[in-house]
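Sharing a chain and its predicted structure for anyone who wants a worked example. Both blocks are below, sequence first, tokens second.
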Amino acid sequence: AVTKIHGIKTTVDKAIEYICNPDKTDQNLYISSFACSPETAVLDFKYTLDHTHDCRDPHNTNKAFHLIQAFSPGEVSYEEAHQIGKELADRLLEGKYSYVLTTHTDKGHVHNHLIFCSADNITFSHYHDCKKNYWKIRNLSDTLCQEHNLSTIMPDGKKGMKYNEWAANKSESSKKAQLRKDINQTIRIVSTYSEFLAFMEAKGYEIKNAEFGENSRKYITFRSPDMSRPVRRSAKSLGKNFTKERIKERINNKL
């Protein structure tokens, strides 16, 4: 799952109204809350914030936080996603913060929305939206996904990568992996470089810049019908064993 969090400075009511939209939550089936209700959350949040020790501190301008947890398409049911969202909220907030949790079912991928008060109900202290806490959220989400046998995303140092950005990166990586596999398999069964090119074309790849010569390009390019853009077969993009010269050498030496 992918996580992202941002602060809400003014429109807590509109944010809660949005995440609780019946058309997005299967007619309110996937809505949960803690220490408040969706109908009273704005007032409950305000009561807690009014009792904070630093309620007039200009640096504490967030009234709530909005956390989004998005899952890979087809990987999780609405019920399980909502359960994971509740487990994430309870482990992260430790029963101290009022929150509203919803699971949206109207998109191509299931995703949770968690809005929680920026101050806790025990000590009336503000939640610190810092890098340390972001990684805590991400690690908790990854742990829960592993416990539920779902895929996780390895940390890349980027805060809050959008799901569609991650999905596009993952798709391109898997296509490169398939290209490596096809190249390796073809090298094992051919005797010449020309045969290699013919076999790769038979697999459906469009091939350019494959020739050798004084004015030829240094790198060969492949594109299969399902690739959004060609992949240059260079040491940088596929690895040192996939340069044009290295491919020919591996064929000749059966490597």
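Comments welcome. The first strand starts at residue 2 and ends at 8.
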